[in-house]
Amino acid sequence: MRFHPPPLRQNPDSGSASGVHHWSMASRPTAGNDRNTPRALLTGVMAACIALALLATPASATLSYPSPQTLSDAGQDSERSQVAIDGSDRATIIWSRLARIQSVRLAADGTPEAVQTLSGGGAFAPRVVVDGSDRATIIWGRGDGSNYRIQSVRLAADGTPEAVQTLSEAGQDSRGPEVAIDGSGRATIVWWRFDGANDRIQSVRLAADGTPGPVQTLSEAGQDAISPRVAIDGSGRATIAWQRSDGTNSRVQSVRLASDGTPGPVQTLSGAGQDAGDPQVAIDGSDRARVVWVRSDGANYRIQSVRLAADGTPGPVLTLSAAGQHAVTSQVAIDGSDRATIVWWRGPRIQSVRLAADGTPGPVQTLSEAGQYAAFPEVAIDGSDRATITWYRSDGTNSRIQAVRLAADGTPGPVQTLSDAGQSALFPEVAIDGSDRPTITSYRSDGTNNRIQSVRAEITNPETTITSGPFGPTKNASPSFAFTDEAAGTTFECSLDSEPFSPCSSPKSYSKLPEGRHSFEVRASDSDGTDPTPAERGFTVDTKLEGSATAKSTQKQQGKKIKVKVRVKAGEKLTAKATGKIKVGRKSYKLKPQIKSLGSGQSKGLKLKPKKSKDAKRIIKDLKQGKAAKAKLTLKLTDRAGNGKSKQLPVKLRR
Questions:
Q1: What span, in angstroms and rounded, lies between the C-alpha atoms of 338 and 354?
Q2: pLDDT band with cut points at 50, 70 and 90 for residue 530
Q3: Angle at 434 between CA 429 and CA 436, to 5 degrees
Q4: Strand, coil or helix: what is 140?
């Protein structure tokens, strides 16, 4: 049985381009690493495509990513990083250097601890998971001098490594380890092992204290089975998928292990008649497994998927990628709403599709830009149902790491380039912490050697600003508010008087609001989140002035001074301004304006005097001579909302 990748590839050992190579699972691999898996052969396809593209092409809040930090030492190549994040937002990153497995833990603030070497020489294909007690389980393959065997180590919550355990039996090669961990801290580890005639899938479960149970052989004898993947549901049941020959073609199979580890029946998921392989598996919150693989349609490789119900029953197989070009290297992750995001490479760009909770696929989206080859996507989903997808893409000279985040509604944000120019960076991996920050690892040449780098996103939430609209008292019962956010692609939600937020746009207007206090809130959202501190304005609709002014119609003047008195009563905070003049015959004398502020419920008197002291003397003289004097006063009341009231008050003066 043969699994035929697309017809153009690169020899993974020599790095040179070669012609068609049909990898036969009956041809025993000989290298002491994980390069001869079907997925690694697809790596060769991608590398060759990129190499040809480089020959043909001349050189040429929101999420933000700082400059990557280099984790592995100089002097030797480090490759194939993996990352997992614990409940304290600490990332454990592993890789292979000098055929030894190394690890480092990044603190919650991103500071790296000391690098630890975990294995002896001859180790390859490391994988890592972290349990609910913040303990990392790390697995790999390693030669014992005669055969390749699967090993594991657990790092305590403080990072201290326990003893290394060898899990697979001696006597034959074991390769391709994968691991998942359940809610009880039990790790299920799978691999394939040669039985003397064929490769077969095996598994072991480590108890919560790290003790390994018995090794189980899951696939049937008689044909080769390779490339296992594993995921565990909320009931502690592991779903394992792999590819196995039916004697003519490679087909995808699966088995579910009960919570006590007992295997159920093996099911064949992909159709007969064409090769299928490179399975991936993820499980949703309803304990349904989504299995994704690559299958030939006779002309091209295409992405297919099936969902297994909680009881293990498979649904219909979906073909997700379009015909006409190869689509390979699929990955899958499932959000908290049971929606699966599936990504793949389709000549030569990265694509994705989201399956609704009922399994219905949405439209396929092309995520990477045209013009250069992009390859090997990975995907992880945060607690807000947003998928971060990363890959590497040529910039015309070198391969660089890129990433994009899909909003909860599936809308892609901007593509960001994470690695520096000047040297190639390859094979990114991604995990997301409890603060919704992706950590992306890869390896990048320093000009001499490949070194492991990582970068953790910094989240800048949108910052909403109200730019106009009433604040405090207003006489406008139909106010309008304008607002903004600096980020592009921002949407807004508004709330009046603590009602639920609803979509809105600037300006937001309201009509005929009732008298009294109100509050307006607005928050911006983008693909990276929602402003946690909405902009707010409190205001009071006040369309009526509450206050009055009175003056005695006849006021007696005594002594040598002229005073015209007015009394103002306030039903709210207001300002009173009194002006006027006194007429005696044909003569007119201006009074000095008086202004006073009053609180609600206060009553104050205003006394108006002639502007000039000589005018007061003249008015007194005229009054003594019996002449008639009349004051004409104007009282203007204004409240804080801008409501105004004016009143004319005539007053007769006498001695």
A1: 10
A2: confident
A3: 65
A4: strand
Most distant pair of Cα atoms in the chain: their distance:
138
Cα distances from 272 to residues 277, 299, 499, 557, in angstroms, run 12, 15, 57, 116
Taking each continuous run of H as one helix and of E as one strand, the counts in the chain are 2, 56
pLDDT tens digits, residue range 496-505? 999 999 999 9
- Strand order through the sheet with 387-394: 374-381, 387-394, 399-406, 416-417
Distances (CA, A) of 523 to 307, 391, 492, 612, 614: 38, 32, 6, 58, 64
Q: How confident is the model at residue 463 (pLDDT cuts 50, 70, 90)?
A: confident
- For residue 569, give the 3-state DSSP assignment: strand
Checking if the pLDDT of 630 tops 50, the result is yes
Which pLDDT tens digit goes with each residue over 257-272? 999 999 999 999 999 9
How do strand 472-474 and strand 535-541 relate by DSSP bridges? parallel
Q: Are 38 and 23 in contact (CB under 8 A)?
A: yes
8 A C-beta contact, residue 545 and residue 575: no
Tell how strand 100-106 and strand 116-117 pair up: antiparallel
DSSP states along 580-606: EEEEETTEEEEBPPEEEEE-TT-EEEE
Give yes or no for residue 203 having a pLDDT over 60.
yes
Average pLDDT over residues 148-171: 97
Q: Give which of 240, 244, 218, 242 is closest to 231, Cα–Cα.
A: 240
Rounded to a whole number, what is the distance in angstroms from the first to the last CA of the chain?
Answer: 126
Q: Label residue 463 exposed, middle or buried (CB < 10 Å: 0-12, 13-18, 19+).
A: middle
Contact 453, 78 (CB under 8 A): no
Q: How far is 622 from 100, CA to CA, in rounded Å?
A: 115
